[in-house]
Amino acid sequence: MNVHTPTYMRAPGEASGVYALESAMDELAVALNIDPVELRLRNEPDRDEFKNLPFSSRSTKECYRLAAERFGWGQRKPEPRSMRDGRWLIGWGMASATYPMNYAPASAMARLLPDGTAEVMSASSDMGPGTSTSMTQVAADTLGLPIERVKFMLGDTRLPRAPVHGGSMTMASVGSAVQAACRTAREQALARAGANDLEEAMAHLGEPVEATADVGPGDESKRFSMHAFGAVFVEVAVDSDLGETRVRRIVGAYGAGRVINPKIARSQCIGGMIGGIGMALMEHSVIDHRNGRVTNANFAEYAVPVHADAPPVMDVIFVDEDDPHVNPLGVKGLGEIAMVGVAPAIANAIFHATGRRIRALPITPDKLL
User: Fold this and answer.
1) What local confidence, expressed as pLDDT, does residue 8 receive?
2) Which residues on neighbouring strands pair with residue 173, listed in sequence order?
């Protein structure tokens, strides 16, 4: 299995490794004449057999069920090249997704002001996934204040320390620190004022109340295997004359713990789906073996998906999960698992459409002709 790594790719390791594993699972399903979903259900483990640990939570079966039902998987004809739309060969494929729950040490400070507002801060960053919004939500929920009365500050190294913005760990780590700092500040303000309402307590005190919290992982990783899981279903159309592949629709179901902001989370998943299309069909770093340089290190020659490549249907489903073991917020992270299963689902759909098993990404027209 040869996966040409893009210049940058989310979920490095998982995305390429799951492509190989889920392609092999699909190949096994064909060889055994078993539905790909049924094969995975028959082999669903009760515990992490590599670590010999129970899962903190695992919703894979529910992900398969919900995504297959929404996709209409039961109408699939199993034989390759058996579904057509004019000159287009239609293929339906699916794959599993998994990504580890990462939780790193983080700090945050909460400052309650006499006017009933709050300032919460941590030296995290926001690359676009909505960190500012989701952290404000966590703070407002913990403090019991309207969200418009909470200001979250980030992006400054003078603020309380935060981990790198990567590995789908920001909400688990910084979010847990924000929750802890806000809870401590609230408890201190109510206790000092002898009140039950935070705004009344701060008006009575007439001075700011500050609290800093440091959080980090405990021994849970020694007692549980902690991962987010998902299932991705894809429909492709392959031009029988030209070998061109178009992704028509994607349905993804994810068990990723508590979802803080469903709108932002859905956007993350759509972004992952688009990234998976690029991985499967377009992105390829061409190396000059004389000097090790990437020869197409620019957007003029390095192909990435654009709006015209996005399917009209990208459906996202979140499975309800209550996992008290992963971190205080019960979140698992969504930024990267959303991409992990997309490329193998596309490749498996292309096999179903054409009968061609492509082992090297990207799957370009020349490989299908």
Assistant:
1) 47
2) none
The predicted-structure confidence for 236-261, as pLDDT tens digits, reads as follows: 999 999 999 999 999 999 999 999 99
pTM: 0.93
- For 352-364, the pLDDT digits (tens) are 999 999 999 999 9
Domains of the chain, residue spans: 2-102+222-368, 106-216
Is 14 catalytic? The answer is no
| 9 pLDDT tier (thresholds 50, 70, 90) | low
332: Cβ contacts below 8 Å, ≥ 6 apart: 99, 101, 168, 172, 226, 227, 228, 255, 256, 257, 321, 323, 326
- Structural element, H or E, at residue 118: strand 118-121
C-alpha 168/C-alpha 14 separation (Å) is: 12
Active-site residue (options: 22, 199, 321, 336): 336
Q: What length does the chain have?
A: 369
Torsion of CA 315, 334, 10, 45, to 10 degrees: -90
- With contact defined as beta carbons under 8 Å apart, do 135 and 120 qualify? yes
Q: Distance from CA of residue 118 to its chain's centroid?
A: 30
Are 2-102+222-368 and 106-216 the same fold in CATH?
yes
Q: Which residues of 290-322 are buried (b: 16+ CB within 10 A; e: fewer)?
A: eeeeeeeeeeeebbebeeeeebeebbbbbbebe
Tokens in use for 153? 């500050």
How would residue 7 be classed by pLDDT, with cut points 50, 70 and 90?
Answer: very low
The architecture that CATH gives domain 2-102+222-368 is 2-Layer Sandwich (3.30)
Give the CATH number of domain 106-216.
Answer: 3.30.365.10
pLDDT band at 277 (very low <50, low <70, confident <90, very high): very high
